[in-house]
């Protein structure tokens, strides 16, 4: 299969190791990966701020970059969901529709498309899994705890394949971290308190690392951890799944 790697702008700027880990992981699993070099912001910040009508340029550029691939894989739940739900173009709506059907967040691609059942990975640490709102309630890569329904989590399923990794049980497994994109700018006090509560849950249960499929959430919590001079680190799920793979 021919897969295009969609690397969100904030991942490219602040967490390039997560993008590299995603690339390496996919290639080691036998995927032919391409990186469209002209890609840039998908337009999510504008859309979240009420200016979706100004994202036409971003949409058209995304369509130009990512048309013609079997799948598009992204190490960010929020950006993936934005493309799935908001990519449109009056000039190329047929191409936009195809792209919306073919874009996947990394863990859902590994579970639903590649059907990964085994990983030669090792990460001997206690890890807390943050299930982001976009992934949980938008992409449905895990079941919301408030629903009376069978529990599942695609990121947790993959993490369970990693040798030595101990997934800690949190008190509130799917609370929002408070980031919310531009919410953390408009409502910084509320956002900060929510983030502190989320971080505290991981710390109280002995997590050495906090991981997630969404680096935006991890970036928010990392800022809080640094201000607290905490030894707890954040790490994208791709970096764990790719760790020590031969």
Automatic annotation (TrEMBL):
A UniProt-annotated Pfam family: CCG
Cysteine-rich domain residues: 3-84, 127-221
Annotated protein name in UniProt: L-lactate dehydrogenase complex protein LldE
Molecular function terms from GO: oxidoreductase activity
Cellular-component GO terms for this entry: cytosol
Family annotation (InterPro entries): Cys_rich_dom
